[in-house]
Design brief:
The structure holds two protein chains of two kinds. Chain A is an all-beta fold. Chain A has no helices and nine strands. Chain A has strands spanning 9-13, 18-23, 31-38, 45-50, 55-56, 61-64, 70-75, 84-92, 109-114. Classes of the chains: A mainly beta, B mainly beta.
């Protein structure tokens, strides 16, 4: 799976949009971009994923650049409850057959929402 | 609430002991994944079971083992425990393949004294 690079921490004012960047310059054509978050020591929570088109759900939007080398997770109206560590993960499509099918978590971005 | 349950929530034991962590996946999910989160190693994938069969291995120690039962619940067995095994242990459930999202349980916090 491709390696990702994220800033270690970011601040955002409550009510504003939080834009979390992720660099995945070595991503392959069959790798998806996944975002998870972990609030304090709770279990990681799935947010969104995409291959090349932009995606939106009730939690967030995912913008993937045309060359797929980077992406941005957007939380449109951040609240204090969005304070968490956000993980960007790239993962090969389909079971890799002999390789691990688990997720590879990096250090993520610690997003702090300021009141 | 992800629909994945884990027991116990907390576990305190001594070095050299053996413990069993339990996970019940979401209804309909055939895959169970186990992860370990320690302060120095971060979140690490340990092992995956799919419909009762071991499917993939990550950074799992030989002292650790897991199984998935016919009712699809899974157990992670940790033996000859060391201080460094103190960590949060998460179970996730999902399908197979990248399009199948993994949903995580609340975790079991293990403290080895």
């Amino acid at each position: 799976d491709a390696k990702t690079t994220q800033p270690p921490s970011m601040d955002c004012a409550e009510g504003r949009a939080a834009n979390l960047p992720c660099n995945h310059s070595t991503i392959s054509g069959n790798e998806y971009v996944y975002w998870y978050r972990q609030i304090h020591s709770q279990g990681p929570q799935y947010i969104i994923h995409g291959l090349k088109n932009n995606e939106t759900n009730e939690m967030a939007s995912l913008i993937i650049t045309e060359d797929r080398k980077s992406s941005t997770l957007i939380l449109p109206h951040a609240t204090l409850r969005d304070t968490a560590v956000y993980y960007c993960i790239v993962r090969v499509a389909g079971f890799s057959g002999g390789g691990a099918d688990g997720l590879t978590f990096g250090k993520g971005t610690h997003l702090i929402i300021q009141p | 609430d992800s629909g994945v349950t884990q027991t116990p929530k907390h576990l305190i034991t001594a070095t050299g002991q053996r413990v069993t962590l339990r996970c019940s996946p979401r209804s309909g999910d055939l895959s169970v994944y186990w992860y370990q989160q320690s302060l120095d190693q971060g979140l690490q994938f340990l092992i995956q079971y799919y419909n009762g069969e071991e499917r993939a291995k990550g950074n799992i120690l030989e002292r650790f083992s897991a199984q998935q039962f016919p009712d699809l619940h899974s157990e992670l067995n940790l033996s000859s425990l060391e201080l460094g095994d103190s960590a949060l242990y998460f179970c996730a459930s999902g399908g197979i393949g990248v399009q199948e999202t993994q949903y995580f349980g609340p975790g079991t916090r293990l403290l080895v004294l």
